[in-house]
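Q: Structure tokens for this one, please.
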Amino acid sequence: MISLKIIDVKAFMSSLLIQNVFDNFLLSELDINTYNQFHITGKLNEDFFSLDELEMFEGRKYSTWSEVKPIAYTLIKGNKLPLFIKIVFLLSPSNTENVLRKSGLAMPLSDINGLFLNIRYDKGNLFLITGTSIKTFMMDKTLDHVWDSDLKTFLKLYEIAVEEG
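A: Here is the predicted structure, written as tokens:
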């Protein structure tokens, strides 16, 4: 787990809400406090969809950020800054498998609950915090380190400046 402070909040918010930088992340949850408190759970409500629609999701259990981003943008835009934003992203199963492969750990993908990216905006400061959830306790933190490293590479690729904090 690492904590990274975003240096240019405005540029990051553009990457998050306008550009497609984070569009492929899955949304676990979203909290926005503006004139109201808004909470969105990213888990798909399977009862809402027909069987044909569910097949199009190919087993995906969560909305992608690109699907929810327009709603978040509508809630955030305006003349006043939000009081608070919390976004919890989940890495897709295929990307989680890539990180697992890089780690070299002999662990099935089914043992990983998720690799998470927590985005937290509060009082003008914006932080990214990584997280790893595994179904069983492990002393080996190789998977955490590979996920942290991959995130730093991702941020560098998109020219998102951070400082470790």
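A few notes: The chain has five helices and seven strands. The mean pLDDT is 94.
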